Amino acid sequence: MALWLSSTAHAATLVTAARRAAEAAGVTVSVTVVDTGGHLLIFRRDDRAVLISGETSIRKAYTALQLNAPTAELVGAVQPGGLFHTLPTALDRPLLFIAGGVPVRRDGRLIGAMGVGGAAPEQHHAFATAAVEALV
Predict the structure, then answer these.
(1) Pairwise CA distance, residues 18 & 13, whole Å
(2) Which of 26, 37, 65, 135 has an alpha carbon 20 to 30 Å from 102's alpha carbon atom?
(3) Do residues 97 and 83 touch, judged by C-beta distance below 8 A?
(4) Where are the beta strands (DSSP E) in the chain?
């Protein structure tokens, strides 16, 4: 496999795996996959997923990509006194520091990111992590 999310087929694998994990948990979600430039590769919102889940999944994917870290690990960094406290409002493109965004890596290199929204943040992180593991 290439060292980047070179096609929507790779992105579709991530979306399918995340949605299967969500279905197994009995929840509906939105899933977003972006490439290394932060460009949308694929987006899918389940019919019954809350509308805001689309926006949150996009922002989580972008945040995980830009900081090359799972958003679950960054939540404390934006709290008052945290390393990134002012970062969410300092950029033109909004970041979102809620669990559910994860970078996608291949052979140790960042190749994109994905975000999940629509349920509880801990579930989002678990679904995204399971999807990335399915890509390997």
Answers:
(1) 9
(2) 26
(3) no
(4) 30-34, 40-45, 101-106, 109-117
Token digits of residue 86: 């002012």
How far apart CA 63 and CA 88 sit, in angstroms, is 10
Q: Is a pLDDT exceeding 70 seen at residue 3?
A: no
This prediction's pTM = 0.90
pLDDT (0 to 100) of residue 135: 82
Q: For tokens 């052979």, what's the residue?
A: 107
Beta strand residue intervals within 51-134, DSSP E: 101-106, 109-117
> Which neighbouring-strand residues pair with 106?
109
CB 38 within 8 A of CB 66: yes
